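Appendix B: complex inputs.
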Amino acid sequence: MSLLSKLKAGLGLLALLSMTTVSAANSTLNLREGVTELSREAYHLHNWVVLVMLLVAVVVFGAMAYSMWAHTKKKNPVPAKFSHSTALEILWTGIPFIILIVLTVPATTLLMKQYDTAESDLTVVVRGFQWKWKYSYPDQGIEYFSNLATPREAFINSATLASTPMAAIAKVATAGVTSKGDTPSEKSATYLLEVDKELVIPVGKKVRFLVTGDDVIHAFWVPDFGIKKDAIPGFINETWARPEKTGIYRGQCTELCGKDHGFMPIVVRVVEEAEFNTWVASKQEEQRAADAAAVIAAASSLTLEQLMADGEKAYLAKCAACHQPTGAGLPPTFPALVGSKIATGPVADHLSIVVNGKAGTAMQAFGAQLTDVELASIITYERNAWGNNTGELVQPADVAAFKTGK
Amino acid sequence: MGAHAAHDHHDDQHDHKPTGITRWLFTTNHKDIGTMYLWFAFTMFLTGGFMALLIRAELFQPGLQFFEPSFFNQMTTVHGLVMVFGAVMPAFTGLANWLIPMMIGAPDMALPRMNNWSFWILPFAFLLLISSLFMEGGGPNFGWTFYAPLSTTYGPPSTDFFIFSVHIMGLSSIMGAINVIVTVFNLRAPGMTLMRMPLFVWTWLITAFLLIMVMPVLAGVVTMMLTDRHFGTDFFNAAGGGDPVLFQHVFWFFGHPEVYIMILPSFGIASAIIPAFARKPLFGYASMVYATSSIAFLSFVVWAHHMFTVGMPLGGELFFMYATMLIAVPTGVKIFNWVATMWQGSMTFETPMLFAIAFVILFTIGGFSGVMLAMAPVDFQYHDTYFVVAHFHYVLFPGAIFGTIAAVYYWLPKWCGNRYDEFWGKVHFWLSMIFVNLTFFPMHFSGLAGMPRRIPDYNVMFADFNMMSSIGAFGLGLTQLLFLWIVIKCIRSGPKAAAKPWEGAHGLEWTIPSPAPYHTFTTPPVITNENAHS
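Resulting structure:
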């Protein structure tokens, strides 16, 4: 889409806005109705309050418009002298008060419904991390991370993104609003709203979400379910949803949580109960197989080439957001790995920081998040890539030994 | 012999002022200090606006065009801090300095040396804040609300500069507020009873009380951050037994009254301008005073409506929902009063009036979305989306800033003795009016469609609305340069203004010559019913 056609589309939309009523259903101009009782009732309450506000607007702005037309110096050269009216003042204190009471009744009822998490059929623990979500099904013994699936190349429209004020000004000044040198990649309809592993829940069941945060505050929002709860470290918040239709529903983290706040979407797949049960079984099997494979892999010895190849892939997926694909990091918040003390010093220190993380920073404890094979290949990669050339190999067995040895 | 006449005229008023840089450094004159506050605020307004344009440039289309997300976060944060603490609040303090003594018939502010000090620490506060952008690791990147633990454990090293600069801004605001309170209570001219004060003085007096009550709370919360970061406390650290939500409670106990600090003086401005151009007394003076006081009182018991999603107990949610909705009542009273003031008046639409009417209309739109946001069960769909961004920009830009611009056009003839160019003033108004709506109205829709705030990149479904907002923002930003030019042109030349350049204006400030002499009301005037209630 060229800039011009985008501009035209934008202006057309603006014209449309002025003509369309805000309550037009199924338009992009209004809140969505969603697929749960809560979201539907929130939608109706929203429409209703918009309507009430529009009526008030018609009265107030209508009076102002009439006055501006009729009470000008030309048409009304001698102004009236009145400056108060007790009756009027009581009236326009009282009427808004009554309108508000009328609004609070449905709001109170709906809020009480939203807070009723009793008698749920399924519990899912939602844990926010910098910058991904972890979903656990405690009763099914399943847990996994959910990462953004949109590749980095798709959202980087320019090879040289600025990170200092001077560079930023130069960048905007030289490129204008549309950058000529860099061609923006085509963005799909699910751009930035797609993940590697979706949250899967059965249709028609009351699902209770226990929401918490691991590092900073995040917020779990699925607009189609009408629920939003903050994921706060040290707190477990509750909310619930009973989706009425199968399908894929997308949301995003809605509390500023650092650098990649815009890149941790939530995707929920709602399926029939039978399909859900199959999914649970396959997921459990997958987890068992992975555990078994990890045991075998932990005992095996891998070559440098193998570790480097696997390591590069895993590094780009798990580490590059902060430490950058080049290993240069974004210091001082996200340290460089090139020639760093950790990546070129004793292996034990390197293992320790990757497995246990570093408290009070975005460096998480990856020991529980990744398999021993992944950890071994990432550490080997970091110790040998970008000219770090230590020549040292870390085998999965070394990782396992480190974990049990402490 | 115009110059000679002017010279004579100055001599009549014993109007000798110090010259050179020391005039501005050492001044204790309320007019000089007011001028410095206003220029400082305008500089900060352009600085914060420039950051907003960088943000809008990045958001012009999907994808990351210009900045790393970390830099984008610094821009949203510093834009907010600069606009709130650097532009809106100092602009209001500047107006208070210029106008309050002239409106109540006082020779100056009650504590002139403190007045000098409270201005001169401000530039240093903002140098500290803005310099942090150039430091290793960048400036504050945790939003202007700086929620812990993102700002404490996870904050960049420069966070301490941010904390110190907030301390200094707070000190400056507290001193400014004390000065207003002491001046209003002690230096009113004989006969200027409280209920005869112009509403601008009333709204500022109430604002000053809000300031001295909440700025220490802000200082407290940043100090707690400082000790969490460096002295081993765990106020906000869950891992150490602390409570991240406590941060939000303390912050918003400051933050919500702060919202009214940024709007009440604009209420006062509209209450001066609308009667002047309707040539009719303000409707419901007493109810305006009571409504403002109620708003100020309620502002202390609604703070947690910013936190509906943190998981408060049901009872808490209900209380804060009801209390918040209640604020619509006194706010409504004020709006109805302005409409009733216009009713059957004899209106003309000079630039100050245009800005004042736009203020009433657009602020009311912000009020409508405010009622919607107050409804907790629907707020779950609005919270932290662009709908909120649209809401608070509607109450801040056309609210606080249009109010300030209206005030500048209205009192500029009094300040510099010349009339501004009415044609260009109207051009400035209409461009601002169009672009402010083009910028912020589409944000309602991107929010309802589901776009979270503070994200550097977004799904294609939000693209059209964002492009409209970006175009509007650039227009709005450039239009304000026109304002700068109009003001400078007016200061340098222009038709001479009479003592009372507006036919319908009332109040003591219009009884003194234009430009206002360096020292005014060295002998207090006597107030009667005729010159009360501007």
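The domain at 24-531 of chain B is CATH 1.20.210.10 (Cytochrome C Oxidase; Chain A).
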